[in-house]
Design brief:
127 residues
Length: 127
């Protein structure tokens, strides 16, 4: 499931990792089930995407829609200088979270996914 309110609720998540998608092809190579999910979501196979004249979704929207099908993980999808990226930069600058990489230095044409689990520590939900 994708989330959009990470900045205010970051304490509710743990086991975080960030992955970079330089193209949509990468998500399909990494996860074979994505081809089925894409076809279910859009009504045509991914390999026919270039033939679709009226396809309007950006790469970040496609990735978000695909990841919404996974209920056991949480995802925060961002790209260069969008609102979500700016939220992560603030959290890093305030030293609230160390992402293991400098989130200020990302490729401007890639889509990034912060993958995480909901924390099992219930008191984190009371903040």
């Amino acid at each position: 499931m994708t989330i959009t309110d990470f900045r205010d609720n970051h304490l509710m998540y743990d086991n975080m990792s960030i992955w970079e998608l330089k193209s949509l092809d990468e998500i399909f190579k990494a996860h074979e089930s994505m081809t089925e999910i894409f076809e279910k979501e859009y009504g045509f196979p991914f390999d026919k995407l270039n033939e679709q004249e009226n396809f309007k979704d950006s790469n970040i929207v496609v990735v978000s829609k695909l990841l919404d099908h996974f209920g056991d993980k949480q995802f925060f999808v961002f790209s260069y200088n969008d609102k979500h990226h700016n939220d992560l930069k603030v959290l890093q600058d305030e030293k609230v979270i160390n992402f293991g990489l400098d989130v200020h230095v990302i490729h401007p044409k890639s889509v990034y996914v912060l993958e995480m689990d909901r924390t099992k520590d219930l008191k984190m939900y009371d903040r």
